[in-house]
Amino acid sequence: MSNFYEERATMIAAGDLQEFVPFGRDHCKHHPNALNLQLRQLQPASELWSSDGAAGLVGSLQEVTIHEKQKESWQLRRGGSEIGEVDYDEELYVAGNMVIWSKGSKSQALAVYKAFTVDSPVQQALWCDFIISQDKSEKAYSSAEVEKCICILQSSCINMHSIEGKDYIASLPFQVANVWPTKYGLLFERSSSSHEIPPGPPREPLPTMFSMLHPLDEITPLVCKSGSLFGSSRVQYVVDHAMKIVFLSTDPSIVMTYDTVQCLHSVWVLRRVKAEEENAVLKFSEQGGTPQNVAPSSSLTANLRSLSKGDSPVASPFQNYSSIHSQSRSTSSPSLHSRSPSISNMAALSRAHSPASGVHSFTGVQRFNLSSHHQSPRRHSISHSPDSNSNSSFLAPETEPIVPELCIDHLWTEAITNIREKNSQASKVFITSDLCGQKFLCFLVESQLQLRCVKFQESNDKTQLIFGSITNIQAKDAAPVEKIDTMLVLESSGNLVLYTGVVRVGKVFIPGLPAPSLTMSNAMPRPSTPLDSVSTPTPLSKLLGTLDEVVLLSPVPELRDSSKLHDSLYNEDCTFQQLGTYIHSIRDPVRNRVTLELSNGSMVRITLPEIATSELVQTCLQAIKFILPKEIAVQMLVKWYSVHSAPGGPSYHSEWNLFVICLMNMMGYNTDRLAWTRNFDFEGSLSPVIAPKKARPSETGSDEDWEYLLNSDYHQKVESHLLNRSLCLSPLEVSQIKDEDLSQNLSLDSSTLLFSHIPAMFFVLHLVYEELKLNTLMGEGIHSLVDLLVQLARDLKLEPYLDHYYRDYPTLVRTTGQVCTIDQGQTGFMHHPSFFTSEPPSIYQWVSSCLKGEEMPPYPYLPGICERSRLVVLSIALYILGDESSVCDESSHYLSRISLAPQKSQAEQEENRFSFRHSPSVSSLAERLVVWMANVGFTLRDLETLPFGIALPIRDAIYHCREQPAADWPEAVCLLIGRQDLSKQACEGNLPKGKSSVTQVLSSDVPSGTETEEEDDGMNDMNQEVMSLIWSEDLRVQDVRRLLQSAHPVRVNVVQYPELSDHEFIEEKENRLLQLCQRTMALPVGRGMFTLFSYHPVPTEPLPIPKLNLTGRAPPRNTTVDLNSGNIDVPPNMTSWASFHNGVAAGLKIAPASQIDSAWIVYNKPKHAELANEYAGFLMALGLNGHLTKLATLNIHDYLTKGHEMTSIGLLLGVSAAKLGTMDMSITRLLSIHIPALLPPTSTELDVPHNVQVAAVVGIGLVYQGTAHRHTAEVLLAEIGRPPGPEMEYCTDRESYSLAAGLALGMVCLGHGSNLIGMSDLNVPEQLYQYMVGGHRRFQAGMHREKHKSPSYQIKEGDTINVDVTCPGATLALAMIYLKTNNRSIADWLRAPDTMYLLDFVKPEFLLLRTLARCLILWDDILPNSKWVDSNVPQIIRENSISLSEIELPCSEDLNLETLSQAHVYIIAGACLSLGFRFAGSENLSAFNCLHKFAKDFMTYLSAPNASVTGPYNLETCLSVVLLSLAMVMAGSGNLKVLQLCRFLHMKTGGEMNYGFHLAHHMALGILFLGGGRYSLSTSNSSIAALLCALYPHFPAHSTDNRYHLQALRHLYVLAAEPRLLVPVDVDTNTPCYALLEVTYKGTQWYEQTKEELMAPTLLPELHLLKQIKVKGPRYWELLIDLSKGTQHLKSILSKDGVLYVKLRAGQLSYKDDPMGWQSLLAQTVANRNSEARAFKAVRRLGRREMSETSELWQIKLVLEFFSSRSHQERLQTHPKRGLFMNSEFLPVVKCSIDNTLDQWLQAGGDVCLHAYLSGQPWEESQLSMLACFLVYHSVPAPRHLPSVGLEGSTSFAELLFKCKQLKMPVRALLRLAPLLLGNPQPMVM
Hints:
Shape: globular
Number of strands: 46
């Protein structure tokens, strides 16, 4: 029996046994492709077995049952997740053509993540990370962004699929034997075939290893740098076929190879090629590598090229590539081609390489197997065959050398053994580290049954790896257990053994698997070894006892004294075979999980237990490990692990007790005899494990058992139980004699492992104890730790430490206790480290001294373990002592770092360097502290677990920073100071999509019934939440929706008079409907403005485009009225432009931030031809919001070749708008095809529709906007005056073409004014002036003069310029070129004529344009008042123009009243329009009032009796212009007065109101509510240019009218819209809310710097006018956005829906809930209320004398000291306005009550106790806790300090005071102590 226990004691129990089946296998069966997999020829099962004889036998027996196992493989890796530390496996499973990637394990959710099916069988699949950085240096690798991919190797190509969804295919120019993932990319091994060596002259061999750094890079050969015998290193390609890679690791980046000829393993470092190596290799290969130097054709590069191009004839030496594999290549090539579209434009985007390197990966197939398509090899041109001796083939341009990218550099080769072991190639290699972090490279040589471990480490400068000696371990298989720094070894006997490094830990016991127990196998006779040599290994049973059998220390070979048995392996296997299953191999280690393959083919996955589960034990182990020498640390940990993980191991609670016993045993204690450890309750089951020494004398038990029971905690609990007393059970007399005899002979055994290190361990455990005091959650752990520390302190006779523990835990630390004597002789063996201090370091004491301003020694700390102590010390140093350098340099003089060896600390220093990486703006100490703490990773959670007193300075700093944080602080800092509004702002900005969609449909306007389902008016996606905040008082938004909807039939209200026949009545109704339809067709443009950028489309659904409904309903019977009845004439194509606008409006809903790709755009293409116009508009809209750049060139070409006029217009304008101002060449070509003037004169004349030409010309203007490109400007200048051609071409609608050319010219030279560099010879302004006022036509210069030789046969223009055609374009071109330049001379050209004679020469309409142009040039002169508007009217008009209200017409012969009045209104309108441009989007009040007045005036003129003189058409035009100007000024604001005007004009439908006026009015309405109030207009140059195109003041007469201005240009207003709405969102509720903003304007020439208060959500003014924006209190925390540093931050906020996160202050309500602010909590106390409460509780507990520990008292003391500290007082003086962090009345109250309590205790007999303490005599137990409180609170020094001063002999208080000076004792404490010390009994303080 005892033998069995001994065996168990050294075992490690593996937990969590599960059957393992690769998840992919199961998934494959159900995969749609599974069918063809089964049809494939399946592999014979015998190959699944290893070469074991017996296993083979079993395999053949079982072949029948497992024939369905196909060739499969899988690999597992650790799954990482961003959210928390979730630990799971990821599996990559390969079978046939399929690769399945799954995540999770049986116990956790198991799911397929991706499954791939490829065309030919998968040879290998692996994970690989590619670096996407252009910079190829080593530095770039640490920080570069990584593309995570799965690579699937097939015979002829490799597929790579990235997680983002890109997929690449790279063809392989050779057969690949193996692929390895590296840190840099992929590494390929070329498979060598048998007839590799070519006949004929010797030539340089081809490389065998290649690398590929990115799927789009070329495959390049690997360079090898090996040291030769003579020390010079040789650089060459890897060409040796004998060299095989057996292992490759990414970190460290090393490769292990095996040389099949020499049978040796080598290790190489894998790195980037250095420039000199690259040159060496390229030169070396160019010179011809062979000694004979036969022919230059041996150039490696050429060979490679010819090989990879596949142009070698069959006779070439490389025939085995191109012909042997040609079968597989040619069959798979079609599939490769068919896949290529999927990677069409992705390649161009993702890797900005030289075109060459990207091209190869696509032309892969053609490049590699040309030869396989030719019957006869000699068809190739001879010069290209590498055989030919001519050099021509190498001079061909394509043979530029392949530059190598990676290099392997030799590090280590194993020693050559005497006997060459054939096939000793390592079958498994891994890197493992032992418990102390030493690393080993282990490789398993299966033929020798050996695991060879090589220790390696980094050199001090971290540049290279140094390899040590080899240790051999007998093993059949092995695998690393990374999480617990060990490895599992499967011995040939079938035992699983755990090793750490090369130290054996113990066997692994697997519950549920029979252990191959030694007793049974030993009984079998072995033929080859005599039985007497069979000795079982020394049992490690006495593990807990003294280390007298020093088994653990012996090196491994001796440990295995049974290793002689392993010679006869076959027999041994036989013995186990008969016993049943045994473990066959180990595979797939992940963290602490590993799979065991059993001999019967099944697999189980086991989990090895962790080193420690409780945090306390982990921390203590870490600290001890840190301080012990490595070898001893490993042994200590091994011993602990084997105890902890024994079968049936401890639960969480008893782990600490187990640890204490284990540790004390190792220190030499006899824990059985020590009272407090003896009573540990181990939950019964573990006695054999804990005390294996006691052999069990009998089964009946002994007296000792009874004693054990009586001394147990349980017994004491029962004794004190009430039931016990009521039953009158008398307490048993426990034999006290036992205890006494125990205490006599307790001594320590000095021969144990850790005996000499006790002081060092005691000290680090003390530091751990101090560290735990800083975590309020670790209270239980501190109690446990104090017991151990007190025992050690007693035995080491460290009084100061005992006193320290007593003051912390008075009730736990009894004054007397068991002492274990340490012989004086043995104390010499104890190693007292240099860092050991006789005074106990106390973190509370240290902080307290700092607060009082006393000097303190540096505080000792353990790097990596006592991080809190370090944080607290440094933050106090920074904030209280004001030493800024404390956090910058690592070697702070406030901390003394404890270290064993000096070099270790330096490495640690590198690790922990927390300097400011980027230092955000920091002005005060508080800010500095907060930023530093966030940098170090300190969070609010940590702050909450710090004790209150310690955390107070940090909280104080946070409180100071919270008021006005800087805008550029990183997210972590904002979270720390409790400004989640800022941190959330930093990470994202879009309004929560889900929320807005729920509240989208306004409840009030959903009509009842089913109507809503059928018809969508296109305005459902507006963000109602925000709009209801902006316009909260009324329903104006619903009104706008009603006015702009075009999806419902209109009401046709016609009264039937008696004299009308029914037929006539129907006609009447239809005519009325036709009138109303003019309005309906004009609505979409306005709707597009209203819904601008309000919607994120679903990529799987087409965009819903609302119907354009042109039917009507006639009351009272609601009969349908339709235009298609044939009763009246309807103009043809009437709706074509209306549908175009409808498409644009729908497309403009899409926000620029949406995810849209080329496929989705094409997917929206309608099936019906009649919807083509809408789709054309949709394309234009996509261009305006920037999405058209994603449309593939192929598709653009497709659309244009269809020849659909609208589509071409939409596409050309869209593409140009998307490429605004980029001078993009491909777009320029696209546009030029449509503009005859930009084509060479000899080119074929294309028949391009006129409107498409107009669109293309404007497109050119957009693409070249602001570039002043000379050629473009020259052509456009000529085009303004393009004469009509001889036939009918260029004759119709010439005005719009000329205007377009003028607008385009203006855009190209936008704002350049007189600085048109290189254009002075063109005389642009003079030429434009001539176009404007007329004159003699210039001779056409340039290439196109041929075309214009013969004049037009249709139109007689003669030699003069037709001003009616050219004037508008020229006028606007001048306006745009000289925009805002205030150039008076040009402006004077544009002045309205001031004589009647000259007025007759100008069309009144053109006066509007001239006035507008003049005002735009004199930008700064525009003033927002009617006086300025009138000042533009020339005197003659002002004096003689009729005021429209007069009845009488003044009669005058020489004055043409009609001309005068028309000129008057147009000039006024022009001035108003310029006012609109100048104040666009500014909501300027005076501009609004001025324009509103003129709008009202024009309304009255219209109804005036003599309106006919001016002409109603002219007045309507002017009214529309003024209305548009008004809307521009109030853009996005939804102003009510403007809305009323628009609504009034909406209702006017008869008379002069044509399509154009409706268009203007509804555009005004749209601009007024631009983007639902989120957008406004900008006044930048490019915006003004866009608005000039969109608002050109000549409106179409009917819906198909494009004569003067192309309708599509009306939508260019989008280019002038910019998001300016700021929406405060409450960060806690995530809903929009109101907040008060203070906006500061920069000073300008018109006004000083001013501040204005706005209630957000509100439209901001243009950003360039602002200095700063501030969220004002008192409701919300203040927030400052400073625009003087740049507007980028604010722009990004506005572009993401304008979301500005704000945070309500405590006790405040939002403006919505509490408009007047009367309900907020006025009394605001401490920021952290519960801390006060905690302090109060402590005071109360002290009053009740219930303090069992003094930490709470310490906290109160620290709080009081903080508020009286000097640094705090200084801060109060500098910021007197800042509120106190705590209530000022609170502190004195606390202080008083504590003083009272303690003084009362002193009077009630406490003084006696105190005196006893100070004189070192024993005192009574009941006073323990109060005494400790008194000592802590009054900082009374320990008794050992008092005698040194000689206080006892003092006679007077003064003397006492003087002597105590050096003790740093506060006076108030001294006043209380004086009576005791001076000997008079009454204390002096009452």
